[in-house]
Amino acid sequence: MAILDVLPYPNPFLRVRAEPVESFDDALRTIVNDMEETMADRDGIGLAATQVGLGIRLLLLSPYAFEREEGEGKPNYVVINPEVIWESEEREMGEEGCLSFPGVYISVERPLQVRVRAFNQDGDPYELEGEGLGARAILHEIDHLNGVVMIDHVSHLQRSRALKKHQKNQKALAR
Ligand code: NI
Is the pLDDT of residue 25 over 90? Predict the structure, then answer.
């Protein structure tokens, strides 16, 4: 197992559209394990493969996103080749963070509920539903697989504020 580097914005890889996973093999299992270790190390509730420089449609979601403290100790959701099959018309604003923008939080409007069809790491299909933070986390991570990041969802002004904060944080981290 290994902890992977999480690419900070504006790494060009964060703009790549990831390709579907085709082989559910040991190599994939290793990637999933490494990403799980990386997400735990960074205290994230979600991580997309594109954030660690892999152009495949794979993301992880922590059970915390769906169950809060109740989810502690439960396995992560391994979400492969996800497809949104339904989202609610009702939307809500909520605070969002991202491991590619450490320390930056912005308000983003997202559907309140979402249903996704995906495959687990054994290649078995399943459906996953999220509401509130769960829906937000699913959609945020699917965005990453399409080269979209959270600042793409906000106004020009909010975007420049977030980027300013991000640049300041990145400078502090580099010191
Ligand atoms: Ni993110």
Answer: yes
